[in-house]
Amino acid sequence: MQQIIVLLHLRTSYFVFRKWFFMSEERTEISSLGEFGLIDHLTKNIEHQNASTILGVGDDAAVIDHFGKQTVITTDLLIEGVHFDLMYTPLKHLGYKSVVVNVSDIYAMNATPTQITLSLAVSNRFSLEALEEFYDGVYVACEEYGVDLIGGDTTSSSKGFVISVTAIGEVAPDQYVKRSTAKPNDLICVSGYLGGAYLGLLLLEREKKIFLETKGVQPDLENRDYIVGRLLKPEARRDIIEFFEKEKIVPTAMMDISDGLSSEVLHICKQSEVGAVLYEDKIPVHPDAKDFAYKLEIDPTACALSGGEDYELVFTLSQSDYDKIKDVNGIRVVGYVTEAAEGAHIITRGGNKHELTAQGWNAFSK
Ligand code: ADP
Ligand code: MG
Nearest bound ligand to CA 59? Predict the structure, then answer.
């Protein structure tokens, strides 16, 4: 994570860098290549990493064969101005993140991602160099997560940048994990730390505002690599799925945390027809994230419950699996599953019980 942040000189002339990018002298118009030339250019170096990829880019459709395994498919749409802001999102990071958010959904099914397709709508505001930078990030993520880019679609847009990624994965027959199968008394566990990406977003939005209001003022991102990295270069938890396989653990339910822990736990409760109890003091927030939350005078737990885009996993486990996870770094038990009639609650550090809402901080302001 540190690596890619440093790579893009995030700290020094960050916003000027972003501005300069679109006005770069080195600018090849996409129209000079045409649609097919562009696709060829962006995909010419693809080398497949999976035996299941029988036919990739270049025909009417790709062909994959999962050799007796089951296939998992997920798709996501990312829209400029809604899901990302190019003022502070370097295109390489955006390419990386576009892949990560999709493979994260595949891992959340307890499956292994194997292929992606990537469709783009771009305006003439973007040069070939800009798209190359975006694809650099895509290919770094493909290598990191062992997936093959096997196709997509390319079209023009009048203004913004639109990205659609579909990820395909494989899973041993009937080993996939749904949201709807948690059972009362199961443990509720999360991977990693929560709330960091939201705090990174608050920081970048704050600095963007200052930059726009005060000409020439560069953003103050000093010592904030952790939270900025959580937003701009999230990682999917491949390691957790591999750990489950090694330890022969099959969670009873699982999903990835893209909208905040509250919202995801409420999804599991609703779909599994169960209730839940979470403990505030067990919810993991990284010290660097806490530090910035205190600086803004907001509650770090609220960021973990309601801030999105952490791409960690929340899963429920049978209590008989507790010994296998209790000493694992990066997995924490944050609560347990109850009968539906008991509802979904959080017990605060002070011992108070609040109803869990999709907007976790509302519970604290009552
Ligand atoms: P079609 O006319 O059948 O839609 P295209 O000319 O759009 O075919 O695409 C040609 C090939 O290039 C196909 O294999 C398609 O999947 C692939 N492709 C198109 N756009 C992209 C893209 N942005 N990234 C990766 N592959 C792409
Ligand atoms: Mg097409």
Answer: 1
Contact 53, 148 (CB under 8 A): yes
Closest CA to 235 of 200, 274, 192, 265: 192
Confidence category of residue 24, pLDDT binned at 50, 70, 90: low
DSSP labels, 89-118 = --HHHHHHHHHHHHHHHHHTTT-EEEEEEE
- How high is the pLDDT of residue 222? 80
Ligand 1 site-directed mutation target among 38, 44, 57, most atoms within 8 Å of CB: 57
Find all residues with CB under 8 Å of 178, minimum gap 6, and list them.
Answer: 109, 253, 254, 271
**CA proximity to 133, closest of 8, 309, 2, 270:** 8
Residues 6+ apart with CB under 8 A from 123: 156, 157, 158, 159, 160, 161
Grouping H, G, I as helix, E, B as strand and the rest as coil, residue 358 is: coil
Q: What is the value of pTM for the model shown?
A: 0.91
Structure tokens at 92: 């390489």
Q: Which residues contact 215 (CB under 8 A, 6 or more apart)?
A: none
Nearest CA to ligand 1 atom 1: 60
Residue with CA closest to ligand 1 atom 3: 60
Cβ–Cβ under 8 Å, residues 157 and 122: yes
Helix (H) or strand (E) holding 243: helix 238-247
Task: Give me the DSSP letters along 272-321.
Answer: HTEEEEEEGGGS---HHHHHHHHHHT--HHHHHHH-----EEEEEE-GGG
Residue-wise pLDDT tens digits, 174-203: 899 999 999 999 999 999 999 999 999 999
Nearest CA to ligand 1 atom 27: 152
- What does the pLDDT look like over 257-300, one tens digit per residue? 999 999 999 999 999 999 999 999 999 999 999 999 999 999 99
211-242 as b/e: b if 16+ CB within 10 A: beeeeeeebebeebbbbbbbbbbbbbbbebbe
With helix as H, strand as E and coil as C, how does 111-162 read?
CEEEEEEEEEEECCCCEHHHHHHHHHHHHHHHHHHCCEEEEEEEEECCCCCE
Backbone angles phi, psi at 73, to 5 degrees: -130, 140
pLDDT the model gives residue 217: 78
